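Exercise: predict the structure of this protein bound to zinc ion.
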Amino acid sequence: MAAASASPVLVNGLSVDVEDWFQVGAFENVIDRADWDSLALRVDRNVERVLALFADAQVHATFFTLGWVAQRQPSVIRKIVAAGHELASHGYDHARVFTFNRSQFAEDIRVAREILEDCSGTPVTGYRAPSFSIDHRTPWAFEELAKQGYAYSSSVAPVVHDHYGWPSAPRFSFKPVEGSDLIEIPVTTAMLRGKRVAAGGGGFFRVLPYGFSRWAIRQVNGRDRRPAVFYFHPWEVDPTQPRVAQATMRSKLRHYTNLDKMAGKLTNLLDEFRWGRMDQLAAREADLAVEMAA
Ligand SMILES: [Zn+2]
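Solution:
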């Protein structure tokens, strides 16, 4: 790639939030954490499917993983690392950051990291909050991540959404703690008729036509000249997962639509754009990140 090219091909950040089918935020009120151990784990075989897709596309990614999952499925965690991907933290058991006080959050990220590092033998320097739950209510979260020596976080959705969001946060990388190199890399939004729209994956990627994501990432890479940050979950490539009967109609629609099309859509996405690990993206973004005390 020529350095002088008018539109250099940007390497975008590819990420997987490693949690099982019953651990998603949308089911939080219908499946009790106390019952998790009685449910059938599918995360290992689903991560293996994801690893196969990535191997076929010859891309590397970051796997933001729950400590709870690593405790129960250590062998698949080691496969992630052995394949050259980054292992990072998604907290211990998917409790959202704004449900903690500062000391509870400190303990959650410390415990999750210890489990992940012990299990993989690799340092963990990245963090993604469950359900993008760092927002204006939790300014201490970034201070705690900086204090514990994390290099980066990708925990903010700078958009209005029914489950999460911090609409006034910067759309691109920022340094949330004065005097610290900690960098926050928000999940991707695009601009549509003057409004920010979520465009970094999850249900939007699966439910909407592929063309929407193509348009959004082209806008970010082309007009904004910034890398996109995309995420999905292992359960999204698992069409035969158990159905949660008690969930709301809205949650069911969001969770189960197009599961059978996900692998094909991902293959398109991986082929069409360039992708890499989040820690490498964070290193490239360090000089571009704006200073912003949360
Ligand atoms: Zn999650």
